[in-house]
Design goal:
Protein name: DUF3108 domain-containing protein
Strand content: over 45%
Number of helices: 2
Shape: globular
Oligomer: single chain
Largest sheet: 14 strands, antiparallel
Radius of gyration: 18 Å
Length: about 250
Amino acid sequence: MICLFSTSLFALPFQDGEKLTFSVKYGIIKAGTATFEAKSSTYQNRPVWRLCINAQTYPFFDVVYKIRDKIESWWDKETLLPHKSSKQLHEGKYQQYRIHYFDQVNKKTTYMKWSYKEEKWKTEEKNLPFETQDIVSSFYELRNRSLKPGDKPKLYVTTDGKSVVTTVKVLRREKVSSIFGDVNCLVLEPDMKSEGIFKGSSKLLIWVTDDAYKIPVKVESSVSIGTFVVQLEDAQNVPYKIKKSN
């Protein structure tokens, strides 16, 4: 079997316990927060990275557009392929709760979708066309790649019951102000082929440090009500010192 993601365990660009905290701004208003976390854990007695993204708006902003999102991945430390992914979204009036269980060896997935109307799970068994990442692990796997402007790396992703090949455009290098000071970044633009943070995004731009760590320092997401700007405001267990707050 050929693994599409043959990444060395010891070359990962993040440390155990890495936690990135972002402010979520709508215009000039600080509307909420988001966190990205990577922790050591186990899944069915196998060592995994438990990757988690949380995003929420502050109560005062909930009347405008309420966000309560939690997306998790149980990512095998040896194969760097997920065993399970979970996605719970509450954005405006929209709600979603979906789970994937992955059998990477036999290229199968059990897909569970919660019906809020019927108050029960709907389960499907699906074939996987390839070894796959999920929506969270794909970003952490991308951080380990060598990237430069003009590159268009492909990600093999399964989410929401669909397996897709997504292209990420590396648009340019750009220096931006961050909590680490002025840092050189790569600007990434992934294809928006799935529902995630945030649902209905027509365009997503991500600024990551232009080095081996590729720490995200800024995200811009265009949604139906406007544009959210997500900026890094705190970082734990990273190889940089915080110099200032945004």
